[in-house]
Design a protein that fits this description.
- By secondary structure, this protein is mainly beta.
- The protein has one helix and four strands; from the N terminus they run E-E-E-H-E.
- It has a four-stranded antiparallel sheet.
- The N and C termini lie far apart (39 Å).
- The model has no long low-confidence stretch (mean pLDDT 92).
């Protein structure tokens, strides 16, 4: 897999849940940390994502927001 994004985190699919048009894919990246991606059901089907699959969380963002209580 070659892509331009540099923030690629290896993990395993912990859960896949589908909604009407989009779903959520939870990727366990270790040490109790889960990264959740919201992607189309079509993408879930094309990638044939299922629990236990090796996967990458690829993060490409132009903004990072920080909040404090």
């Amino acid at each position: 897999m070659k892509i331009s994004a540099r923030n690629q985190i290896k993990g395993k699919v912990a859960r896949v849940g589908k909604g009407r048009t989009t779903g959520h894919v939870e990727i366990d990246i270790g040490h109790g940390v889960i990264v959740t991606a919201s992607i189309t059901n079509e993408a879930i089907n094309e990638l044939k994502l299922k629990k236990g699959d090796k996967a990458f969380a690829v993060i490409k963002a132009s903004d990072v927001m920080v909040g404090k209580p």
